[in-house]
Amino acid sequence: MICDQQEPKMELKTPTNPICSYNVRAVYGTKQYIVLSFEELNTLELDITVSTETYLIGHVNTTVRCRHTKNLTATLEELGIRRHMRIPYNKACYYLFEATHFTLGANHLTLEIESYHKRNSSKQTLSLMVHVVQPRSGMCYPKIVFQQCMNPKKPREVDVEHFTNIQAIVEKRCYSLKNTFRTQWTIFNFEETSMIFTPHLI
């Protein structure tokens, strides 16, 4: 007699109480911190993506261990993050992202948390907003867009060993009789920790 043994169904659980903490008002060209915290994080594999409409801020898989804190409020204060609402928990597991915004005005900030277990998957999406303002220096900042590479959901592969043409369009220029403006092009790896391509000045 042959008996078919069926694997018991496992309910796919989502992470507990994900909270995104960041400064709603960000200064143009200044490094900002974004913290995604969980009250509890189960053992299921997660993919976490943080992006705006024009900027892939970060992507991490939970095979990379999260950081732990017993006082999330104090951790956020150390990172310079100001919250206007009380956090429902202080003991937390969290991931830290760094962002430098170069698009002035209102930017839609999206966090996608996708969990996997064999054939099952689920996705949580947090839709937020960050307002990027100019520094108080009063300088003019040009606005430059690209025909490619602007949408983080549609990245373009770049092979630095071969010719790659990425065309920039200057939508707003800065004219000054006193100052000379230079444009510097650099290509970094995904983590922005090492420079791949030598910069050129125009």
What does this 3D model show about the protein?
- The protein has 202 residues and is mainly β.
- It is 3% helix and 44% strand.
- A five-stranded mixed β-sheet has the order 2-9-8-4-5, with no helix packed on it. A four-stranded antiparallel β-sheet has the order 1-3-7-6.
- The N and C termini lie far apart (79 Å).
Short recap of the structure:
With 202 residues, this protein is mostly beta strands. It has one helix and 13 strands, in the order ββββββαβββββββ.
Task: List key phrases describing it.
202 residues; mainly beta; five-stranded mixed beta sheet; four-stranded antiparallel beta sheet; 44% strand; disordered N terminus
Give the N-to-C terminal Cα separation: 79 Å
Series of secondary-structure elements, N-terminal to C-terminal: EEEEEEHEEEEEEE
Q: Which word captures the global form?
A: globular
Arrangement of strands in the largest sheet: 2-9-8-4-5
The level of helicity is under 10%
Largest sheet: 5 strands, mixed
Summed up, the helix count is 1
Oligomeric grouping of the chains: single chain
- Average pLDDT for all residues: 78
Weakly predicted, low-confidence segments = 1-12
Question: What is the tally of beta strands?
Answer: 13
The class by helix and strand makeup works out as mainly beta
**Gyration radius from CA atoms, angstroms:** 21 Å
Strand content: 35-45%
